[in-house]
Amino acid sequence: MKAVATDGRTLLDSPLNRLVGARTAKALEKLELFTAGDLLRHTPRRYVHRGELVPLARAVEGESVTVVAHVLGVSMRPMNARRGFLLKVTISDGQHDMSLTFFAKSPRPLAFHESKLQPGTLATFSGTVSSYRGELQLTHPEYQLLEDEGEVDEQDLARPLPLYPAAVKVPTWTIEKAVGSILDQVRPSDVPEPLPDSFRKQHGLLGAYDALIALHRPQTDADWQRGRERMKFEEALILQTVLAQRGHEATVAHSDPRPRRATGLAAEFDRRLPFELTRGQMRVGEQIASDLGSTRPMNRLLQGDVGSGKTIVALRAMLQVVDNGGQAALLAPTEVLAEQHYRSIVTMLGDLAGGGMLGGSDIGTRVDLLTGSLGAKAKRSVLGRLAGGETGIIVGTHALLSEHVDIPFLSLAVVDEQHRFGVDQRDALRAHPHVNLLVMTATPIPRTLAMTVFGDLDVSELTDVPLGRQEVTTTIVPAGKRAWVDRVWERVAEEIADGGRAFIVCPRINPDDEPSHLETSDDDSRPPLSTVIDVADMLRAHPALAGVSIGVLTGQMSSEEKTGAMTALQSGEAPVLVATTVIEVGVDVPDATIMVVLDADRFGLSQLHQLRGRIGRGTRPGICLALSWAPEGTVAAERLAAFAATRDGFALAEKDLELRREGDVLGASQSGVRSHLRHLEMRKDARIIEMVRENALALVAEDPTLRTWHGLHLAVDEARRQTETDYLGRS
Predict the structure, then answer these.
(1) N or C: which end of the chain has fewer CB within 10 A?
(2) Residue-range domains of the chain with CATH
(3) Residue 669 confidence (pLDDT)
């Protein structure tokens, strides 16, 4: 008889507390596992053989290892450079030693580990190898005590041992035991099959139930490899089918054509341009103009490196829409960027942005700004002009997505810095009938990622840089060398004296903030991460910057405070701005010539590249100084070396993908369907992605509703519902 929950759902929909006990279920909630299905989809991240556990001598920094070792010694002490306590455990496999480190705010949590890991104890330890002062160590490793080495028996030697993604107090062996309890109760009929039979046969894939058994209870390495291959194909097909459906929906939708006109706003703007557009801007402009002139809504991704001129391409498209009686909206992720875009557009248009206003051009239009912090009276005025069609171009933050905002003639939506919103937030704009969509990003995305995350969009690239863009030199500065650091501040003072402006970027705002996980290190010689408050105070007292006004900018400041800080920087009233990464995108200060990034080894490549793009935007070259504590030979040092070696954002995107997983490259905000990929890796699985994309397109072409394949229909429908839920949670 099929196991069914009391409400008629299958066993996989049952809450875990009914199946594994309330205590284990509560612990598993920390991993966001709530049902039997959640747990079975939480598959091992890797497999090892107990007889092949990595000897300590073969441990390599950055790699995950599992070792069997005896505890030699254990000690606890307060940390020197930050709050909290450190527990150090020395282990040995009989030939080599290694240190384990545990951190906590108080001694109490560490006392648990100290009591378990007494000298002479034998245990299995799992973790990622790091180094401190040239010696390898494991930080907060998972471990399981063994009574004696006889517990590592012949059966364990032959069977792959699954190691699960775990959490504090939810080690891999707890998860394995809970999974086993569920598998003992699950039958093949409980597990839905989303893959069409023809698809499985074509690619030689296991069924859904058999794949779960192969992943959780493999008898050989070939078992889990076949199970993982099956799951990669499943994830790829669901994702690509979602994108194929979206693409199909776009092709059957209708929009009012907004062709380019020989006279009007767009033509007059082009006539007034004080410079020539690049070949890339002209090419992409033609693509967009053609899209807007058709009856099929445009769905296009515009990739362009920092400074490639995406904004002017978007503005020309917006003017083309306004020339045809439509309205255009530009959606920016932050108020700082929205205000920057608004000022930039108004400046570029001149009197063409003064439609209906005294001194405005007779053929002009109205440009307005809408953000969450706009005053009630000003907001009512903007909303009124929008609803009446008086405003041709509206710039704003997510406030534009509010149900109270009426844009009756919306024809073009431009989403800037898409990676800061998340893949599917653009769907809210697609809810407007007949809207054309232009998604822009200055964080270039490798081809495979673009095909997977933006597979429902046509892709255009701006690879050339506008004439006159200045060179920016990048130098990595050892943060531990006082003389070098002092020279950094002297160099800042020299740029200010020469009329330049300076950005100083810090990873944290306030020293009283809770330390991040990035700061848990046994290296007491490294100070806590730099904060805006401390660095601003330090610079105000630094002899090299005597008499120089220092401003600050963080995301926690009010809109008025942010505007004031940027105005003071641009005018030279406060020519040094200490900020968080809130300045990462869109901020345009032509006089900015120098940027100092503190704790640069804690930033990703794409983020560093974006930050560097804030300088050298005027008539003078830029200088980027990245202060780093990363030792030579580490991944962080390699990342910084790549950053200093090139300004090519596309090359850096590929390097970033090589050094990190694609989820890190895209950012945590890339949720929705993309966040549910557990097995598919973009860089490694390009072959699968390309094959499956063809399958998905064929399936949707045959039956756009997918009802021919019930299991796939349900899986895709759930993926799209989850995407919408993730979007609503973010907005």
Answers:
(1) N
(2) 1-45+178-190 (no CATH), 50-158 (2.40.50.140), 265-462 (3.40.50.300), 472-649 (3.40.50.300)
(3) 37
